[in-house]
Backbone:
């Protein structure tokens, strides 16, 4: 460097190139962020909140280690489908149809549709529960929310929809605040997170009943964290956003960060409900619905904890009420070759937008039915997702390991061992649940 301390022309040019290169990298990163973060955040929906709250209220912190394991598996599964979207430029449904035929695709889509209808109903039930905590009648809030999410997608462009959904996800921070307000025993929290343990059987509960209840919560936790609809939506979103192998490294960061964020929030939902409901009496606490968990925080953390929980529940439900019908429409239309895209007009994609409209209307109408068994619908939807997940995982693993399709982007051995292990474990848990249910009959 010259004595004056100034840069030489060559150094000045090099510095300018470096600045432009770093700016381009940040622009590429910002341009590819969205699909992973939106998909993962929509996972903490009304059903997810009910599942995690039930896990915390029933088993305290003893299931946190399961959540930690699920976080890594979620990141890997999401990364696989995002990679398939970037490499092939096609959605998961399209690849399933091309590789396995229309009949197998039809079976998968029917199962997905049934599970997603239950999930969509659960989202609007979450909106209803949150609105009533906030003093708003569900007969105003649910139709208003249905109209909003319909307008957001049908009348918007992909970029506008994505920004709006990411904006809603900010409300998930309310769960972190609620968990901190409960002032849990952090030693017990980290012991539950890092030390695998099985919850003890409450006195008076039969062994097979205890096993059945535990497996239901375990399957529901997996099903609500790694949902089948997420895989279809994420891969379609990657394709719709135009992400390719050239920009995939930035999309990969988005996917991995989204997986961390969603389970960071789930961690605090379990911490909040366990600290408020389970540990004061040192015994399981029954939750009738997601709103019940919010009300239960009030005696310990005050009115603000209940308000924060309700706001988070409303934001989570509204986000997922937009995404789940959209994911369903993407999956079914791509499976049978119908036109898709949120930026298209009704005449360009009538089945896609028509199905999206019908799913929203159905979900809202069912929730307006008096005395809906909310918790049953919420947990049933997550258990259906968990039971269905191995089928989707098998399709995914066969596709992502096809070298003709993926080239050098096929899975590595570690990915395959963990993903196949998850599928086998879920099948085993489902079989065990069936046996214990028969014993209870």
Residues:
């Amino acid at each position: 460097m010259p004595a004056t301390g100034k840069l030489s022309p060559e150094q000045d040019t090099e510095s300018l190139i470096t600045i432009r290169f770093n700016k381009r990298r940040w622009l590429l990163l910002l341009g590819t962020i969205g699909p992973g973060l939106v998909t993962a955040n929509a996972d903490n929906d009304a059903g997810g909140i009910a599942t995690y709250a039930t896990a915390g209220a029933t088993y305290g912190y003893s299931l946190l280690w399961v959540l930690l394991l699920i976080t890594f598996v979620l990141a890997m599964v999401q990364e696989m489908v995002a990679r398939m979207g970037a490499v092939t430029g096609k959605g998961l449904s399209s690849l399933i149809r091309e590789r396995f035929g229309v009949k197998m695709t039809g079976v998968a889509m029917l199962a997905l549709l049934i599970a997603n209808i239950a999930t969509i109903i659960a989202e609007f039930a979450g909106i209803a529960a949150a609105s009533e905590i906030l003093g708003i009648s569900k007969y105003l809030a649910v139709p208003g929310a249905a109209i909003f999410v319909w307008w957001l997608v049908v009348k918007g462009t992909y970029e506008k929809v994505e920004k709006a959904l990411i904006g809603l996800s900010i409300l998930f921070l309310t769960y972190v605040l609620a968990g901190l307000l409960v002032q849990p025993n952090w030693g017990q929290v980290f012991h539950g997170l890092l030390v695998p343990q099985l919850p003890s059987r409450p006195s008076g509960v039969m062994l097979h009943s205890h096993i059945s209840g535990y497996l239901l919560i375990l399957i529901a936790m997996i099903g609500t964290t790694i949902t089948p609809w997420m895989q279809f939506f994420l891969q379609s979103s990657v394709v719709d956003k135009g992400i390719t192998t050239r920009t995939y490294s930035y999309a990969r960061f988005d996917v991995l960060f989204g997986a961390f964020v969603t389970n960071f929030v789930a961690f605090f939902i379990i911490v909040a409900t366990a600290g408020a409901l389970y540990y004061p009496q040192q015994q399981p606490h029954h939750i009738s619905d997601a709103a019940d968990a919010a009300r239960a925080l009030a005696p310990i953390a005050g009115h603000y904890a209940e308000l924060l929980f309700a706001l988070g529940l409303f934001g989570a439900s509204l986000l997922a009420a937009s995404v789940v019908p959209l994911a369903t429409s993407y999956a079914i239309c791509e499976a049978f070759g119908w036109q898709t895209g949120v930026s298209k007009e009704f005449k360009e994609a009538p089945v896609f937008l028509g199905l999206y409209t019908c799913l929203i209307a159905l979900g809202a109408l069912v929730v307006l039915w008096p005395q809906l068994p909310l918790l049953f619908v919420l947990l049933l939807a997550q258990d259906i997702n968990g039971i269905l997940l191995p089928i989707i995982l098998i399709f995914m693993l066969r596709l992502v390991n096809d070298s003709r399709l993926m080239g050098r982007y096929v899975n590595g051995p570690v990915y395959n061992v963990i993903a196949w292990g998850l599928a086998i474990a879920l099948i085993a848990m489902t079989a065990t649940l069936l046996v214990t249910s028969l014993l209870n009959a």
Observations:
- Confidence is low (pLDDT under 50) at residues 1-7, 9-33.
- Residues 303-335 form the longest helix (33 residues).
